[in-house]
Amino acid sequence: MTRHSQIxxxxxxxxxxxxxxxxxxxxxxxxxxxxxxxxRKDVRTIAVPIFHRxxxxxRRDIEIRLTxxxxxxxxxxTPYKVVDKSRADxxxxxxxxxxxxxxxxxxxxTGRPREVQVRLNVDFTWKDLRGAGRIYVQRKNFxxxxxxxxxxxxxxxxxxxxxxxxxxxxQRLVEQLTEPW
Length: 181
What we know:
Low-confidence stretches: none
Oligomer: single chain
Number of strands: 6
CATH superfamily of the largest domain: Lipoprotein like domain
Structural class: alpha/beta
Radius of gyration: 23 Å
Order of helices and strands: HEEHEEEEH
Strand content: 25-35%
CATH class of the largest domain: Alpha Beta
Mean pLDDT: 88
CATH topology of the largest domain: Double Stranded RNA Binding Domain
Shape: flat
Number of domains: 2
Largest sheet: 6 strands, mixed
CATH architecture of the largest domain: 2-Layer Sandwich
Distance between the termini: 45 Å
């Protein structure tokens, strides 16, 4: 292929890419693909009070750790600023219904779990605080799971082992705060 042919092919490929990109892209994020932000433009601030603990959940401070993880993800991954309820455009409220553990594998020598799964279940609602209290997102029985290793050599306890599940739940929950497609 000559140098002139290579340049012509490159221009043709660039033009075709621009046509395809323009055909798939839309400035309205609810209609097809877009390069625009998927977050609401009418919300700038969000209040995140400490999540409640469900009636059957007795682990101390797990709801506080979850709320801290959610705030961290909102601040780092979204355009929203977390503020006090009195200054917020919206509020994210929720309940940690359960934090269950399930052994996945057992050490045959000791009878103790080698690998444990933590399953978290929450209900949450994100709603507008200005005006009629429009609900942006509401999820019931939103679940995630993560594993940890309580056996030697790592010897992770529930507090340390649940950290991955709490962070995964916070990340997935914050992903729900985007505009619907």
